[in-house]
What we know:
The complex is a heterodimer.
Chain A: H1 2-17, H2 25-42, E1 49-50, H3 52-56, H4 59-63, H5 67-74, E2 82-83, H6 84-91, H7 99-102, H8 115-126, E3 133-134, H9 136-147, H10 153-167, E4 175-176, H11 177-183, H12 189-192
Antiparallel strand pairs in A: 1-2, 3-4
Helix pairs in contact in A: 1-2, 9-10
Chain B: H1 2-19, H2 63-84, H3 86-91, H4 94-112, H5 121-138, H6 142-147, H7 149-176, H8 187-197, H9 202-212, H10 216-246, H11 251-283, H12 293-310, H13 315-333, H14 336-367, H15 374-399, H16 409-417, H17 423-430, H18 440-468, H19 481-501, H20 506-525, H21 535-554, H22 578-599, H23 616-636, H24 650-659, H25 703-707, H26 721-739
Helix pairs in contact in B: 1-2, 1-4, 2-4, 2-14, 4-14, 5-13, 5-14, 7-8, 7-10, 7-15, 8-10, 9-10, 9-18, 10-11, 10-13, 11-12, 11-13, 12-13, 12-14, 15-16, 15-18, 17-18, 21-26, 22-23
Amino acid sequence: MGLPLVESALQWNSGILNANRDPKNDDVEFQITRLYSRFHSLDKGENGALSREDFQRIPELAINPLGDRIINAFFPEGEDQVNFRGFMRTLAHFRPVEDNEKSKGHDASEPLNSRNNKLLFAFRLYDLDRDDKISRDELLQVLRMMVGVNISDEQLGSIADRTIQEADTNGDMSISFSEFIKVLEKVDVEQKMSIRFLH
Amino acid sequence: MTSRAMTLAGLFLLLLTPGTGGSQVPGTDGAGDHGGPHGLDGHGANATNKAFPVLSFDYKHVQMPFEISLWVLLASLMKLGFHLIPRLSSIVPESCLLIVVGLLVGGLIRVVGEDPPILGSQLFFLCLLPPIILDAGYFLPIRPFTENVGTILMFAVVGTLWNAFFVGGLLYGVCQLEGTHLGRVDLMACLLFGSIISAVDPVAVLAVFEEIHINELLHILVFGESLLNDAVTVVLYHLFEEFAAAGGVTIKDVFLGIVCFLVVALGGILVGAIYGVLAAFTSRFTSHTRVIEPLFVFLYSYMAYLSAEVFHLSGIMALIACGAVMRPYVEANISHKSHTTIKYFLKMWSSVSETLIFIFLGVSTVAGQHHWNWTFVICTVILCLVARVLGVVGLTFMINKFRIVKLTTKDQFIIAYGGLRGAIAFSLGYLLDKVHFPMRDMFLTAIITVIFFTVFVQGMTIRPLVDLLAVKKKQETKRSINEEIHTQFLDHLLTGIEDICGHYGHHHWKDKLNRFNKKYVKKCLIAGERSKEPQLIAFYHKMEMKQAIELVESGVTPAPPNIQPKKPTERALPQLSKSREEEIRKILRTNLQKTRQRLRSYNRHTLVADPYEDGWNDMFLKRRRVMELGKKISELNNYLTVPAPAPDSPTMARARLASDPQAWSIKPKSDSIPTIQVDLASPQSPDSVNMVDEFNKPSKPTEAEEEEGLMMKAPSSSADQKERKRDKEDGVEQQRLARCLSDPGPSAEDDEDEPFLP
């Protein structure tokens, strides 16, 4: 069960993880192996794929306000199982951006861990109905999750309104992806949304 | 400007001469004997003259405070002077100018024939240094600091060690050369000298970097390094001092040195943290004695510093730890005025200290006995530069393997170039015992030369270099609520991803710390309701308050205040003609004057005015007068409002609102306007005002008017539907205005927007 999957992962890794550089191949192999063992330890049903319950068994995720949304991000549309490939694909968003990747021009496929794609990943966590806009209600839901139960709805509403007003440039009372990017232009997303060991 | 300096210096000298001969600055050796005549008054010297002395001159008994005050005054006037000359302060950094002034003053004193005072180590370490460090520590931007703490520690510890050994070792090699006549300088002395000169100085770095506004990362790297290398410097200094006295060194001593370093650093931080927690805990109970709140902050911090110094731990690290630990909790507990006070006082003291330090450096240069040795000095300067560059490059190479955001060559250059030396090196050198170190004067000369070189050459050229290299500058804009929300969102997201990966990284531990903080620590250290307030809400409150203050400050201009151009609910002020504006101002000024008279009698112990002092008669009279005025005004322009009678006196309302953040509580409001309603009910007032209800009446609350007096509002008695709506909005605006205070405090800086624990 284990080894063939890892090898096939290593074979297509160059597609997803852009690991064509030779000196780094060892690192990449190490990371993939590590992630695979993690995948395996989460996979209690031993069927080579993770279900939502497997994720929910992680204790820290249960107390994370965004836990459910993060779990959902792993599962493609309408499916209930995610295999190792999908697992890696989602995690690939969080690789640190290499300098030489930054200076690369726009090739046909932007790597998954580019700034744009990182932001798109975060945007999709807000925008549950996939209409490419963060509406006031979606924002309220996220705020409610982050802030807890002690704050009144009205106050949260005022914060949400203020947030939308600040970001909204085309007056549609919701935040589109380009507005989202603009608002976060000062935040160092490449650093914030990167996990070091995936380097 | 120089003439001013000269007159002042001249005045100072005139007063100094009759007093003392050869006085040191108080705090080093005891003040010398005062020779010299004392003028007209003879203390019982002339028994024959029975006339009562009408005017006498007795300088002796005020001498010490007088001199201290004169020096501080000189420093402050210098500072004033520099900023009045715009071109000068943009070319030459302030520190350079101050050293030059010090040189001049020292020269003057010398010319007059007196001995100029030297920057005594005790004075420096106990009085001049702590305010600067406390200011830095209290306002330390925690988030960038913790994100880069690994890098900072590497530079501080490994970098300083490298510098010390490199400079010390190579200097020893130079001294051993035949032609230099420096054979007396042994290895230990050289190493000690190296350790003194290798530490980057926080005062100098602050002074220079504050003016060039480079980006946050570089600033925190260099500045953090200058703060944290104190532990290394302290340990190395004492180590080598001991070794030089003892003669030999063994492996055991080296091992003990390492242990000593850990003890000094961690002990300092622990001491600081303990005092910080104590200060936070004390501030929980200060809701009834707001006036002395700032004092607790200063006292606890200073005690932390002194306690660390008792055990020869790192006082600087204790001070930083104390400030950083206590700040989130203290700020949640104290009133807005106390916060402003703390900020102002810290800035003031640190500014004066810095000025004094640089002036004294200049004076000490003139005063000290120098032993100039070309080889030694030149070698020192060159070796310091080389060591710094090599150290930075080498360390960056290693560090970049672990960093996500790598340090570029430009960054490395600025870090290396920003390694300025300053007064700490001088004071440490001055502390050296002349008996054990006969070459102390030579050391001091070399130290001063290095300081001058770094401050003048590097300090002056760093600004054009920064521009030339197009280094990223500090971003001036404030943090928006979007950034705050999304940053927190990303924090949660990354914590979740880390948990899924099973990777215990940065986010994981930060999240754990935050949870621990929220669950246990905040409950202990923050009073009342604020302990449960989420970070986001606190941030939002702060932002609203700031905006309200800005609104008030922009005052009555015929143009609408343009803070948020997109905000649909904000209403533009009505256009008033100049003459009408004048009439309005005059009328309200007469009202305002009455208020100020009433303020005079509140006592020292509380900021809340006594409700019974106003006198109810006065209030009725005022009401009647105000209503007459109101009729007059409404004739002028029906957009103006009746200054409605205040249900409680403005002083009380203002004091009540301003002094107690715990009086805020969130009141649910069933209205669609995006604002926070404030419940003003407070046990102190017999008739609390519910401002929300006032919207239903056409009358308006007058607090805001009293505050600034000139914000006019739209509604008239004939409640139009549109005007009613504007009414409510303005009422809300007035509420916000009422919550804010007349004193905006020092310029808002980014540090104010820092959340409690990032």
